[in-house]
Amino acid sequence: MRHELVDASRVWFGLLLSWRSIWRNKVKANAASGMAVHDECKLRFLELKAKRTHRFIIFKIEEKQKQVVVEKVGEPTQSYDDFTASLPADECRYAVYDFDFVTAENCQKSRIFFIAWSPDTSRIRNKMIYASSKDRFKRELDGIQVELQATDPTEMGLDVIKSRAN
């Protein structure tokens, strides 16, 4: 009888530890990818998409607030060079760029690019936070047509943008 009680208590203790471990891992996973999206991000994106009042938007994650916020908004007259110059050389960012182009058939078109900027020189923790939050953030921005992942400026050069736009 005593052995049965000891075995039963070991089983219950083992189950308790298993559930505790599962719960902790779930909480950690949610914390890693659970960045909130500030309402201004959605509003500025809608303005870019529908009203075309912006050429680009750069978003950053505020770690203390645990949310994605708008860092910079580009005027419609700004160029692609102005956009790339606005991205920090050693920190990750999300960006949206409204690219206007003319097709081979001489038609004026536009594509909205989502760019995940993750330079090689940025901190590993920064890269991990941005990578784990990217999909959730992208879902909030309905209307993205092309996605790019860039770790250095050559991976998002104007020639790359033009080739991906078609």
Could you explain how this protein is built, in words?
The protein has 166 residues and is of the alpha/beta class. Helices cover 46% and strands 25% of the residues. The protein contains five helices and six strands, in the order H-E-H-E-E-H-E-E-H-E-H. It has helices at 2-33, 39-51, 80-85, 124-140, 158-165, and strands at residues 36-37, 56-62, 67-74, 93-102, 108-117, 146-150. A six-stranded mixed β-sheet has the order 1-3-2-4-5-6.
Structural class: alpha/beta
Identify the strand order in the major beta sheet. Answer: 1-3-2-4-5-6
Work out the helix count.
5
Shape: globular
Tally of strands: 6
| Overall mean pLDDT | 85
> What share of the residues does DSSP label as strand, in percent?
25-35%
Summarize the structure.
The protein is α/β, with parallel strands linked by helices. It has helices at 2-33, 39-51, 80-85, 124-140, 158-165, and strands spanning 36-37, 56-62, 67-74, 93-102, 108-117, 146-150.
Sequence-ordered SSE layout with sheet pairings:
Layout: H1 2-33, E1 36-37, H2 39-51, E2 56-62, E3 67-74, H3 80-85, E4 93-102, E5 108-117, H4 124-140, E6 146-150, H5 158-165
Parallel strand pairs: 1-3, 5-6
Antiparallel strand pairs: 2-3, 2-4, 4-5
